[in-house]
Amino acid sequence: MSAQRISRFLSTWPLAVPVLLFAVGILVWSARARETGEEVTPLLSTGVTVLGQPFSYPTQAPAKVTAAIVAMQPGAETGWHEHDVPLLAYMLEGELTVDYGVKGTRVYRKGDALMEAIDFPHNGRNTGPGVARILAVFIGADGVPDTVPVKNPQ
Fold first, then answer.
1. Tens digit of pLDDT for each residue in 8-65?
2. 101: which of 5, 121, 124, 144 lies 20 to 30 Å off by Cα?
3. DSSP readout, the chain?
């Protein structure tokens, strides 16, 4: 293993521990679910964003996870913005069309799970007839903004 790889591993180790514990917890919960008749439905398992970008966890500060439910009325927009940290999004209801500029648009509907683009301008708009509700889980770090407003790139 090269010195660079060892250095990278050691710098991410503090974040790897909670992720490893979470994964072990999921495995234990899954085994228990089989015994008790509960059902586990995987939502997403990926190492890349919706634009195919590999992602990694911020290491410049202590880890911080922020979870929020975003509710958008029909026609509402997020405004152009970027995310500096990985973002897992799960569509609870409604429809959201996200404009990624030169990378095109994508439509997400109830039940869709995704890893949002990182450091890439985009704008979300509720294009459905009802409220769009999104569970947003930011995998960030203290002092690192989850969302940063940007100018329309076009």
1. 444 444 545 555 455 556 666 566 666 777 888 888 999 999 999 998 887 878 999 9
2. 144
3. --HHHHHHHHHHHHHHHHHHHHHHHHHHHHHHHHHHT---------SB-TTS-B-----SS-EEEEEEEEEE-TT-B--SEE-SS-EEEEEEESEEEEE-GGG-EEEEETT-EEE--SSS-BEEEE-SSS-EEEEEEEEEETTS-S-EE-----
pTM: 0.75
| Both structure tokens of 16 | 């790897």
